[in-house]
Amino acid sequence: MSNPSLPQNDSPAEQQQRKSELARAQQTYVYDHDTRLSPLGVAQSVPNGQGFAPILVGSAALVILELVGNVMAKASKLVGSDGALHSPKGGPMDDATSAKIQGVLHDLKQRHRELTLMLTPLHGEPERAPAPPPRAPAVAVVAGFAQKIVTAAEGRAVEGVLGATNYPTKKVGDIIKSLLDALVSAAGKLLLSLVGMYGQATGVYDYVSEFQTFRLPEIASVYQDDSIFAWLRVAGPNPLVLKRVASPGASFPVTDTQYRSVMGEGDSLARAGAEGRLYLADYELLSQLVPGTAPDQQKYVEAPLALFAVPAAGSPSRLLRPVAIQCAQTPGAASPIFTPSDGVAWEVAKLHVQVADGNFHELISHLGQTHLVMEAFAMATPRQLAPEHPVNVLLTPHFQGTLAINNAAEADLIAPGGPVDNLLAGTIASSTRLAVDAVLSYSVNQQFLPVALARRGVDDPSTLPSYPYRDDATLLWGAIHTWVSRYLAIYYTSDADVLGDYELQGWFAELSSPSGCGLKDIGEDGAIRTVAYLANLLTHVIFTASAQHAAVNFPQSSLMSFTPALPLAAYAPAPSITAGLPSSEIFQHLPPLQQALLQLNVMMLLGGVYYSRLGDYDRNIPGAYFTDARIREPLEAFQRELMDIEATIGKRNLQRFPYVVLLPSQIPQSINI
Question: What pTM did the predictor assign?
Fold first, then answer.
C-alpha cells in the first residue's frame, strides 16, 4: 500500500480513482434523517466491516454470564440442605411454585452452559488473530432483566474465529436472548420475587444483597457522605456540569447565614464569590423532561440547583464541599433551600440531585455529546476523505464499532420499553428529545477541552484545587494534540496545503451541512484554514472518541451500578419541607428492587466491556496499522507519553480518592460499547 497523500498532490489518474472510491463510499454510508433521533442524520445501516468485533461480542457475553450467575447465586438460597426447594421463610414450597422455579433454573443453567462452551475457544485465541470476514451486526433484544443490549455479531463471523464448536451455527446473541428470556418470563419474575429482588426496599442492605457474585462498588459504603456527593461533581460519571459563579443568583437565594452554617463563620458567601470559590451545578436543561412510569409506578425528576464551595486558601482541606440545594428552578415555599443541617430532608434533596445528574449524564454527556456527535465524524470521514487521505487513515481506528453501537442504541436502547425508557426518569419521547437537542446545540469549537474548562471557569487549580477529571483529561489532551500535530506535519507543510485540500474542505462542508451532520460552530470562517486549527479539531475528535467517552462510560459499572448512590429516577416528588421527615423517607424515593436490579445489569454491561486501547493502533490486527515509515517515531513518542501519564495518574491516586477511568491503559480507542 502506498503512503497516504493529499488529493491535490496526486496525479489526475489517482485523483479520479479517489473520486470513484468516494462515490462508492457515499453509496454505502447513507444518512437517515427519519429515525427516533430525527432530525439528526445517522447511518441508515451498518456497512460491512463496521460491525462489532467478535472479541468485543465475546466480552459482552461474558458479562452477561456473570449477570445471570449473580441471580443464580441468589436463587441458590431457595435450596435447602435436603436439595429441595423451600420458600424464603424456610417452609416447603408448594408443588406448582416449585415446578415453575425448577423450570426457570433449568433453563438458566442450560443456556449458561451453552454460552460458556461457545465462548471459551474465542477467549483462548491470540489477541492479534486475523480479522474475521466482513459481517453485519445482529442485535439481541433483551427485555426486563437486561433489556435490549447489544450482544452479537453474525454467526459466520463468530464461527470464523471459533472454528468448529458444539454450536457452530448459533449466534451468540441467540443464546443470550434465550437465556435472558427465561428471566423475564412469568416464572423468572416469580423467582426474582421469591429471592427478594422485587418490590420496595426497606433498608440499604436490600440493594447490597443484589450483589451476590459481583464485588460491591466501593461507593456503597461512602455514598451518603457529603464529601463524596461533592467529589462526584469533579470525578463522577458526569464531571461536566459544575461551573464557577460569583453568586448563586436570584433564582437560588442562598443566604449568607446558610452559607456560614456550612463553611464556617470565618468565611462568607460574598467573599467566596469574589475569590472564585463558588461553584454551581445547574440542571435547568432537565426542565423539558416529562416524568414517565416504570411500569406502573410514577417516576419523578427535578431540575435542581446545587451550590458548592471551596474553603479559603490556607484551610486544612480545600476539597469541594456542598452548601445548599434547591430542587426546582424557581424559589418558593414549595421548593425550599436545603442545607446539611436539615438531616433527612438534605439526604432526600441530594438524592434528587443525583437523579438529575444521572439523567443529564446518560442523555446529554454520554449519548448526545459522545456517541451521537462522533456518529457525525464517523459518517463524514469515509464519505468525503478517500481511504488514502492522511486524516482518514488517522481517524478510522477511532471510529471502530461506533456506527454499530449507535445503530443498536437507536434501534433498541432508546426504543419504547427499552432500558432508557425503563430506567431513566422521563418518558422515552422527552428523553430522546433531550439527547437530540444536546447534539443540535453542540458547539464544536467551544467543546475543545481547554476552551470548555475555561468557559465553565473550572480551569484554574488555584481556585478549584481538586478536580481529577480536569487534571487527568488535560494530560491526555496534551499528549493527543502533540501526536496529531506531529502526524499532520508529515503531510501538510503549510496552511496553503490545508486550504487546497478539497477533500478536507468537502469533509468540513458535510460536517456542518444540515443535509449531512449539521454540526454547529465548527471551522474557521466557513472553512478549515490552518494546520493549527485542524490539529485542534482532530485532537478533539480523538479525545472525544477515546478519553471523553471513557470518562462518562466506565463509571457506569464502578459507580452507577449501586442504585442508592446514583438512582436514575425518583419514585416520589422532591420534599417541600426541611424538617420532620422520618428516617425511612429515603426509601420512598429510591427505585424499587426490580429497577435496581435492571440498573445493576445494564450498568455492568455498558460499563464493563473494554475493547482496544488508546495509542495501540496495531492491537487486534496482523502487522502494523500505519504503513508510512515516517509515522513510527511520533507514534512511539505518543505511546511513551501515555505510559508517563499512566504513572503520573497512579501517583496522583495515592494522594486522592482514586480516579482510574482516565488511566491510558483503561481507555479504548473508540466508542464501541
Answer: 0.91
